[in-house]
Structure formats: C-alpha cells, structure tokens
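REVIEWER CHECKLIST
Item 1: Sequence provided? yes
Item 2: Single chain? yes
Item 3: Sequence as submitted:
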Amino acid sequence: MEKRDEIRPELESLIPFAKGIAATIGKNCEVVIHNLEAPESSVVYITGNVTNRSIGAPITNLVLETLRTTGDKSEDLICYQTVTRDGKTLKSSTMFIRDKSGKIIGCMCINVDLTEFLFCQKIIGQFTESPGGTSSNIKNEYFAQDVNEVIENLIKHVIDSSKLPVAMMQKEDKIQVVNELDKKGVFLAKGSVEQVASVLGVSRYTIYNYLEETRFKQQ
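Item 4: Structure as written out by the authors:
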C-alpha cells in the first residue's frame, strides 16, 4: 500500500474503503485514489498491483476525456472493460469525488484483473460444450426411477409435440402418435402397450393394429 504524504482530507477519508475493497476482492484487485487537481501526477494512494503504477502516476486518458466532455457533471464510470499494455483484461469502475461545492476533486478507481477468470471460463466452456455446440444437439433423456416413468414422459412429449389434445385426435392422429412412440422404442418395454392405450383412450388391440399398420408402411 502506498500513500502520498500530503493528501486532501476528502480523499484520505476514502483510504479505509479502498483497503476494504481490495482485501475483499483479493490479489487480482487494485484500488487507486486520484487527486484530479494534479492530473499529471494524480495517484495519491494505491493498494494492490494490477496496472504496475505507483504514487505520482498520471490520470488515465479515459478520465481526462470524461472530464473534458462533461466536467463537474461527469457521472461515475461503472464496470467497463479495458486491456492493459501487457495484455491483461480488466474490469474497472471509476467513482468521482466532489467537494462541498460539487466540484470534482478526485476519483477512486477499482481495477480487477479478469485474465485468470477468463482463462478458467474458456476451459470450463470447452469442457461443458457438447459436439456441435448448438441447441440442436440437445437430446431429451429421462432419468427416472422406473420404466413406467420413462414411458409416461415419452408419451407426454410426443402428445405435446402433436399440438392436439387427445380428445380432439382422429384415428390418423393417434396412429401418428403410436408411430412416433414406436420410433422412440417405447414398445420395447413391457406394459407399454397398455399405458399408451390408456392415454389414447383405445384398446390394447387397437394399439397393436396401429403398430402393424405403421410398420407395414415402412417396409
């Protein structure tokens, strides 16, 4: 931690906050207090080391541009990203400090080095990405306690996809539902014919007839 020997009381009162912020965020954080009455050597306090600056370093071009454009009406700059000369990606915030008259006399800047986090994000993204990387690659897979639950989920999924409630389905609609369920392997499970028949409101023999008809057409 560095502090200029002479520092305005308004700015010095911010030092405990700067220390607390830096300690809370950790080693990737730097908090700097600037005296904007001397922009050419504005840094009067710094804790942490992200930008390799020290006491007496100048204010940044971004703050100068903001003050030149909007002066004492300048609003705080919150959560913007920058890239340092040595390639670090930073998430930064600049809060302006005013005296009693409303004149901007300084600012407190928080710089968080995101480089390690972005690297971790990339690794995690590569690990969690499925081949193809698109939503079209997502499969419906049901992790159930028993086979009846799996069948129920499949029946519900196929009926929901048909966009017609069972009560409004005609024979051809029900045949299509049976065909879709057959493609999904529902009828490989014991008791599935009875479950489908119950949901569609037909007999188990009707389901067998529907299966025979759809499978014959596919030959």
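Item 5: Key structural point noted by reviewer: The two ends are 80 Å apart (CA to CA).
Item 6: Recommendation: ____
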